[in-house]
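U., I forgot to send this yesterday:
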Amino acid sequence: MRRISLKFVWTMVVFISCLGIAKGGETGFLPKIIKIKIDTVIAKPGDKPVIEYWWKNVGGSCAQKDYAVFVHFVPEGKYGEKNIVFGGDYRPTHPTTTWFPGEVIIEKHYFKIPSDVPPGRYKICIGLWDPTTGARIKLANEEIKEKGTKYRICVITIVEKESKVEKKPLEVNFEKSILKEKDLKAKRKKDYLI
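Result:
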């Protein structure tokens, strides 16, 4: 009689889950942004702030496709695609087809503020989308959802190009299990608009 190792069985369960056929495939891929760190929420045109995104797959399987992340900068009080002042897309270093259920993925990405961006306060909105179809993916972040499938993670203030800027880092935890007292205080401040 042949023995099957527990490690082999577990590997197959995870593999089948990531194919979306475990549990009848009813739960699927459901990403959630659980934390962000930005090296500064005050910047000027030409600066390259860095954002660290902490993603977690709270669904029952990996993604069926490799999705891209979009990052949009929209003036405070404005909504919709026509109000995007600047932004960009990037492919996660760890493809979404490898985001196992319950796994936390940490991605770091910088964005360059264009030289012609007028001073003001801009919402940073993110989301996932399918580059082959253009379809956006729902996140498990209803509390920070804008319109559609865009999610506001923080606000950045852009100052005049000639201004002297002192970096002001920000860390926000969106998941209660990792929420800290300092984040509760930060959430109450209008500056962060979380």
